[in-house]
């Protein structure tokens, strides 16, 4: 194909930033047929000289057109008009797909939405002014602790509500637990890829973090043993079920091996079980007890167990439940919770309890999981074997990157299409291969999600290393 060697847009009289005018001119020229698939655009410096503008303005204009799916750049070939293989996913300049936060997917269920709205008033009306005008105990009102024990019954059967503390979200519970177990300068070990919020928390507390290596089944017991012998950690923070970010669910044999190592070293475990409802779909389903039991059910004397409602019920419910080994730990945790947060917000705790008691929380979980399952199927169709493994539930996946892709190059290329992702560097406590987390709940609709994942797959399978847009 003969490539056009010169194309210069008419920018006189255009409004707004010049780089956006260049991108719009590319779009208009493609629409009019002036530019065709495969046509090469002039080098950026040549076009800048022709238009009498700065080189960086042209570079930004080309980058914006590339973000819109109009152009493609390859080493040795330049910038050319891209073939449209499928409907282009293009986020507007004011709207991006933010996969940096792992939102639960929005579901379409008007009847359930109506129940949720109506519940907000009824959830507090039966507690009267006592709820609004009195401070609660730092470990939470007894009714809220009973509701927490009932909610967690599939994970910790016959749970005594006196061992339950109501926390202002999982992050608040993790803060309190880490302060209980480790002092500044001491060590906590974590999975080699782990929740970024915990890495941030540890850094702010002055606690050292040591990685425990992982394989396709999660944390490796032998690696945990080595860290215990070498570094004498004060605790092991881990996410055995739907691990964040890899979505690995640790099988029972691996869980038992991890517990055996911890028992041998007297090592407390901080178990983050935030995603368990996505595995069982309903709190009445007890099958998970035999296939992937909580570490707290295997070693109640060692485990500080955390689970919240923000991920699998509603991010607006910043309520979590901390389960500690014994009465002494309850007293200590209550002191730390008072020091760090005074108490979980009673109004929010009341709503959470009402949702649990009436079954609304369970119904919401089912709606979220059904939408998550549908989006998982879309992701598998789009990415297939490129996905690390198909999770057993939930709404995030891990996408390993193969050379020549790096996290920086791949995430930069995605941002040009309006897609923001978190990569290995955000989750890593050690040296780990490059990859990114895909959050299935970020796009508002399944249609938007499918277009988004098709764009991710298209970029992943680019044969040539993309030209940097950094100047």
TrEMBL record:
InterPro entries: Aminotransferase_I/II_large (IPR004839), HTH_trans_reg/aminotransferase (IPR051446), PyrdxlP-dep_Trfase (IPR015424), PyrdxlP-dep_Trfase_major (IPR015421), Tscrpt_reg_HTH_GntR (IPR000524), WH-like_DNA-bd_sf (IPR036388), WH_DNA-bd_sf (IPR036390). GO terms for molecular function: DNA binding; DNA-binding transcription factor activity; pyridoxal phosphate binding; transaminase activity. It holds the Pfam family Aminotran_1_2. This is PLP-dependent aminotransferase family protein. CDD domains: AAT_like, WHTH_GntR. Residues 16-84 form the HTH gntR-type domain. SUPFAM superfamilies: PLP-dependent transferases, Winged helix' DNA-binding domain. PROSITE patterns: HTH_GNTR. Keywords: Aminotransferase, DNA-binding, Pyridoxal phosphate, Transcription, Transcription regulation, Transferase. Gene3D superfamilies: Type I PLP-dependent aspartate aminotransferase-like (Major domain), Winged helix-like DNA-binding domain superfamily/Winged helix DNA-binding domain. In the C-terminal section; belongs to the class-I pyridoxal-phosphate-dependent aminotransferase family.
């Amino acid at each position: 194909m003969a490539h056009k060697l010169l194309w210069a847009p008419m920018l006189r009289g255009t409004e707004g930033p010049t780089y956006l005018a260049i991108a719009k001119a590319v779009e208009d020229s493609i629409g009019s047929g002036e530019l065709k698939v495969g046509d090469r655009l002039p080098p950026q410096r040549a076009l800048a000289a022709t238009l009498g503008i700065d080189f960086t303005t042209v570079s930004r204009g080309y980058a914006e057109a590339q973000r819109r799916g109009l152009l493609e750049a390859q080493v040795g070939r330049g910038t050319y008009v891209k073939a449209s293989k499928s409907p282009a996913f293009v986020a507007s300049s004011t709207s991006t797909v933010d996969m940096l936060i792992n939102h639960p997917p929005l579901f379409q269920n008007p009847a359930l939405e109506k129940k949720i709205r109506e519940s907000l008033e009824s959830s507090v009306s039966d507690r009267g002014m006592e709820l609004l005008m009195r401070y609660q105990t730092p470990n939470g009102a007894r009714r809220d602790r009973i509701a927490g024990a009932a909610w967690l019954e599939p994970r910790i059967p016959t749970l005594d509500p006196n061992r339950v503390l109501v926390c202002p979200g999982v992050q608040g519970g993790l803060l309190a637990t880490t302060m209980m177990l480790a002092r500044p300068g001491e060590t906590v070990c974590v999975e080699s890829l782990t929740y970024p919020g915990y890495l941030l928390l540890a850094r702010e507390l002055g606690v050292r973090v040591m990685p425990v290596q992982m394989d396709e089944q999660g944390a490796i017991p032998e690696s945990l043993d080595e860290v215990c012998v070498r570094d004498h950690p004060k605790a092991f923070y881990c996410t055995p079920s739907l691990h964040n970010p890899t979505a690995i669910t640790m099988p029972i044999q691996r869980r038992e091996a991890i517990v055996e190592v911890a028992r041998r070293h007297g090592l407390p475990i901080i178990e983050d079980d935030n995603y368990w409802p996505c595995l069982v779909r309903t709190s009445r389903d007890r099958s998970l007890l035999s296939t992937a039991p909580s570490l707290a059910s295997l070693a109640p004397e060692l485990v500080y167990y955390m689970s919240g409602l923000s991920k699998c019920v509603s991010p607006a419910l910043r309520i979590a439940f901390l389960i500690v080994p014994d009465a002494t730990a309850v007293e200590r945790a209550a002191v730390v919770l008072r020091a760090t947060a005074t108490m979980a917000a009673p109004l929010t705790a009341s709503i959470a309890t009402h949702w649990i008691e009436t079954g609304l929380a369970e119904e919401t979980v089912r709606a979220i999981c059904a939408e998550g399952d549908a989006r998982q199927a879309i992701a598998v169709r789009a990415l297939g074997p490129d996905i690390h493994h198909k999770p057993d539930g939930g709404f995030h996946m891990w996408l390993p990157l193969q050379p020549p892709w790096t996290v920086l190059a791949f995430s930069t290329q995605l941002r040009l299409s309006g897609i923001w992702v978190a990569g290995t560097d955000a989750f890593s406590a050690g040296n780990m291969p490059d990859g990114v987390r895909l959050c299935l709940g970020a796009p508002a609709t399944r249609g938007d999600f499918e277009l988004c994942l098709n764009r991710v797959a298209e970029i992943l399978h680019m044969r040539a290393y993309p030209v940097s847009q950094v100047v």
